[in-house]
Amino acid sequence: MVLIPVNDLSSTPRTRIRRLPDKAATDRAALHAVLDAGLVAHVAVTDNSGPNRAAQPYILPVAYARDGERVLFHGSTGSRLFRSLAEGVPTCLTVTLLDGLVVARSAFESSMNYRGAMVLGSCRMLPEGEKEAALERITEHLMPGRWKELRAPKRKELAATVVLALPLTEASVKISAGGPDDDPDDLDAPVWAGVVPLHEAYCDPMPAANLEPGIDVPDYIREWRR
Hints:
This protein has 226 residues and is of the alpha+beta class. The protein has helices at 28-37, 80-86, 128-142, 155-159, 219-222; strands at residues 24-25, 40-47, 56-66, 70-76, 90-103, 111-122, 124-125, 161-167, 170-176, 194-197. It has a single domain (21-200), classed as Roll (Pnp Oxidase, Chain A), CATH 2.30.110.10. Strands 1, 2, 3, 4, 5, 6, 7, 8, 9 and 10 form a ten-stranded antiparallel sheet that branches. Strand 5 (90-103) and strand 6 form a beta hairpin. The protein is globular and about 65 Å long.
C-alpha cells in the first residue's frame, strides 16, 4: 500500500519542477485547491492497437471530481482508450486554470498567470457497487445541488459507463502569479505593461426547447458562481 502524505506534496524524480522551481507549490492543499476549482481535466493514454502496433498518444478531455486523495472520472465502456485506462496503463492527468495574461514590454517576457496540477499513476476501475456514488460526486462537483433532483441511473446506463479512480500519490502543482518581470533595459519603453485578469463565469440559464411551462430555474442553479 502506498501511503499518501497528509500535508506535504512530496516531489519525485518525475514530478520535480526544474523549470522555474520557485513556482512549485509543495503544500498538498494547493493540489486540492486546483483540482476543486477545475471542471475539465485532460488525461493522457497511449494506444498500441493501430497499424504496425505503433504507439499513438492521445489526450482525452474528461469531466472529473476530486474525492479525497483520488480523482474520479468516467467514460464509455465501448471506448478502447478507457478500457486501456481501466486495465491500469500508466497515465498523466492535468488540470490548468488560466487566471490572466501578463502583458510585458517584450514578447519574450509576456506570459500567463495560471494554476496547474499534474497527476501521474495508474487508474483503478470502480466496481458496480461504487459507481453510482462516484457519479454523484462528479455531478455535484460540476452542478452542485443537481443530483437530488435527477432520476437514479438506469442499470443499462451504469453498465455502459466505466468509472475510474486515479490516486493523488504522485503529483505536482505549479502556480504563476504577479505582474510582468521586464528586462531593465525595456522599462523606459513607451508601451503599457500589466496584467489582464481572466475569469470564468456562469451566464443566464437557457431553458430547453421542450421544457414544460411553469418549471422555473431552481434556486440552487441561480446560486452557481465562479
